[in-house]
Amino acid sequence: MANYSTSEFKGGLKIMLDGQPHTIVENELVKPGKGQAFNRVKVRNLKTGRTIEKTFKSGESVEAADVLETELQYLYADGEFWHFMNTTNFEQLGADAAAVGDTKLWLKEEDMCQVTLWNGEPILVTAPNFVELKVTETDPGMKGDTAQGGTKPAYLETGAVVKVPLFIEEGEMLRCDTRSGEYVSRVK
Amino acid sequence: MSATDWRAVAPQSARIARAALLARLREYFSNAGVLEIDTPVFSSATSPDPQVPSFEANNAGHFGYLHTSPEYPMKRLLADGSGDIYQIAKVFRAGEHGRHHNPEFTLLEWYRLDFNLPALMQEVHRVIAAALNRPVEAIQLDFRQACVDLGGFDPWVDGADKMRDCLLQGGHSVPESMGLDEVDGWIDLAFTQLVASQFPSDRLTFVEGYPPSQAALARIETRGDQQVAARFEAYWSGLELANGFHELSDGDEQRARFDAERAKAEASGAPQRPVDERFLAALQAGLPDCSGVAIGLDRLLMVLQQVDDINEVLNFPVARA
């Protein structure tokens, strides 16, 4: 397995810590006067998303994490796995509930998603920033009330619930921001 | 490479500030009667200190190093009768890059005959005020007292386990690979993370009186019942600006320290480097009583420009060099 020296540390580098794949968020060299140099790094656990701080003696080596960021097409869920396909070689991969997490609420068939692979296995699925989803259930719309505030919940085809203006009706297509979980606009 | 990589990182205002800062420094030293000199960047020998990594260079088959500071040849000049001297030089430290580091940086180094450490600290204060072109406040701390008051540890008494505990209690991570026998490494980490990080952001902080194990090229003195290195550093906030010594002039003692550093390098698997015999010969011939100091000018420019990233005062930092 490849190793990285601390001198190669930079944002985005994927390393193994405590048996878990991490990505370096921030790397800072700490070097007093004539003394020992250190690398103080912020790292994010790619499986849990948790960010921690680690300090290394400069010159140390850390095992590289075999991590690959891929764009895969979401196909379907079978209750246990969410299946994705590489659209160039048509290879299929199943991601488990831990890898999909809350992203499952935004997964629409045929959407391209960012899937992080560790040793070839999906560990993290990120939905596209914006998705277009159909409203499956919401209270009846109020005709004419298009300008005033007031919101109501709308249930979307993927299971997500977003707050929408009162004029939105069942069957409409909505554009949503998956990062904030918010309604953006109607899709004409 | 991105399409705009050819452009300078530092804005034009930083170039103008740098030129003015250099002019004010040269004016100060000219008025003070200190002679500007230069020494080679490429040398056959370099610091044996494994913590000061040198660039290796090849002069058509003759191997040597880019200087990490002009200290050895400047002391040869002092031993050769140069009197007070200063130099503004590009120096090189392999692998050091970050928010406060660039592997190639500009150092101002000067030596004053018959100056003791307090006299040199006062001059550093004047030089920095001259460079910044404004009055500057300064405070002075004793290294040991600062560690006790601000960090909760005493480097003269406490072991590495105490410093590790203080770091962990302060919410800092510590390197798992650093053994408790590496006391100086623990002092370095605890001092930067717990002590220097609390220095005021609106004035200079002088720290004086280092542990003897961190003397580098400074004399070791006996004060009361403790041994202290006659070394100081000047900080602006947690940013280290200057490092000064009452210079060690004993050639035998200097050779013994080199040998100790070479042994440390060998033990850690770091490359062995030739000892600078001409420097040692100059000390044997007689270095006049003097104190010397080096200031990182890019960092001083950061203070002047009120930025916290060295890249903002460099035209072409290493990533664009």
What is the compact description of this entry?
The complex is a heterodimer of chains A (188) and B (321). Chain A is built from 1 helix and 16 strands.
Could you explain how this protein is built, in words?
The complex is a heterodimer of chains A (188) and B (321). Chain A is mainly β and 188 residues long. Helices cover 2% and strands 52% of the residues of chain A. In chain A, the strands form four sheets. Chain A has a five-stranded antiparallel beta sheet with strand order 9-8-7-10-11. In chain A, β13 (151-156) and β14 (161-165) form a beta hairpin. The model of chain A has no long low-confidence stretch (mean pLDDT 91). Chain B is α+β, with helices and mostly antiparallel strands and 321 residues long. In chain B, strands 1, 5, 6, 7, 8, 9, 10, 11 and 12 form a nine-stranded mixed beta sheet that branches. In chain B, strands 2-4-3 form a three-stranded antiparallel beta sheet, with no helix packed on it. In chain B, α1 (12-32) packs across α3 (117-132), α2 (71-79) runs parallel beside α8 and α7 (251-267) runs antiparallel to α8. The radius of gyration of chain B is 20 Å and the shape is globular. The relative contact order of chain B is 0.18. The interface between A and B is medium-sized, with 22 and 31 residues.
